[in-house]
Design a protein that fits this description.
alpha/beta; two-stranded antiparallel sheet; Dihydrofolate Reductase, subunit A; homodimer
Chain lengths: ~220, ~220
């Protein structure tokens, strides 16, 4: 089986926006609205990793949510997904947004120019790596032990890996809300149609799943 | 996490038929047509267990196909899914339709009145068990080691477990072909609407996925 680089459960607005420009500690997505509006389809599913109560739907949206860990052996994320800091690390206190039990449970490669020692929280080890996208991917594939690698975002990171033509599949969930300004994944999904097949699947929840795979 | 009983990738015609009445060694589904017509949507996906060449689609149909093993720790199947024999076992030569590498890779409980010793092929162990559906499910759950149990079919087995109200989720793929006569799962999916939520999801491949979960 080939090792794929997969974008999964990446959520954008109907006008293509994934995040705002002004991320802060209090506002990880930098959006003027509650980002829960974008993610509500996932939060309603039985397999949502942060679910604390029983129940939840087990239809189409749940298949997409529960695939999050399926055959994934490592994640690559941009530094802005890891935290709100910019520039050199002033301290090593910050260990991500996810508390003592990050949902990744694999090695995670945080893509940054600024070195920092690796550390482990529960089943997740964070490494801090620079270099070209292809170099980062090579390290992640080696760590993934034959499994696929998830490209976790944010939007700039996904765009750079797309520009380098390293992405094999993308699941982009388009929520029925317009945001107006922010960091865009695309102007239109058509931008990927030269290199990818796509299934466009409207869910009863109101979100439209776009499932791309390489031609 | 509760242990679920899940029907996955169960394929029927647009008139509800899963199999013919006259199963034989040469015709496992007992259908007058090539059963490949029902299953072609799954065979086209990258994750189809019997795929021998690289390639295949990675859109909606692939999510459903690749969920086959996701968090499954055991399977229950009817005797007619296991083989064409009826009545007491005349020999123990028959070891299923799947050759030396059955795709299950978990304990499999074959539901039959006719006892036979367990045996193992590669990563799959087949056990032969009688009793009420609830008893069979209790044994499968114990063997599944905390994971879910797949209810593999055939159609009579699924109907009996539905009648006993033991099924938690069902994925039924309805193919755009009429068969006319045979063993029916339902006259209409409405029959399940008193007990189950359902997402009805048309795939670009032409099949319509019905995803049921318990109310």
């Amino acid at each position: 089986m080939p090792q794929l680089l997969r974008v999964q459960n990446f959520n954008i607005s109907s006008d293509g926006i994934a995040a705002g420009e002004d991320q802060t500690l209090e506002n990880p997505f930098g959006l003027a609205i509650d980002p829960g509006v974008l993610f509500s389809w996932a939060g309603a599913t039985a397999s949502w990793p942060n679910r604390t109560d029983p129940g939840g739907s087990r239809g189409l949206d749940d298949y997409l949510t529960r695939d999050f860990r399926n055959n994934i052996g490592a994640e690559i994320m941009g530094r802005n997904k890891f935290g709100p800091q910019r520039g050199p690390w002033e301290s090593e206190e910050w260990k991500g947004w996810w508390g003592e039990e990050p949902p990744f449970r694999t090695p995670v490669f945080v893509w940054t120019h600024h070195p920092r020692p690796s550390f482990t929280l529960s089943d997740t080890t964070f490494h801090f790596v620079g270099g070209e996208p292809a170099e980062v991917l090579a390290r992640a594939k080696e760590a993934a032990d034959g499994k696929d690698v998830r490209l976790g975002g944010g939007v700039r990171t996904i765009r750079e890996f797309l520009d380098a033509d390293l992405v094999d599949t993308l699941h982009v969930a388009v929520s029925p809300v317009k945001l107006g300004t922010g960091l865009k994944l695309w102007e239109s999904p058509e931008e990927l149609s030269d290199r990818f097949h796509v299934d466009v699947v409207p869910s009863p929840s109101g979100v439209t799943h776009h499932l791309f795979w390489r031609k």
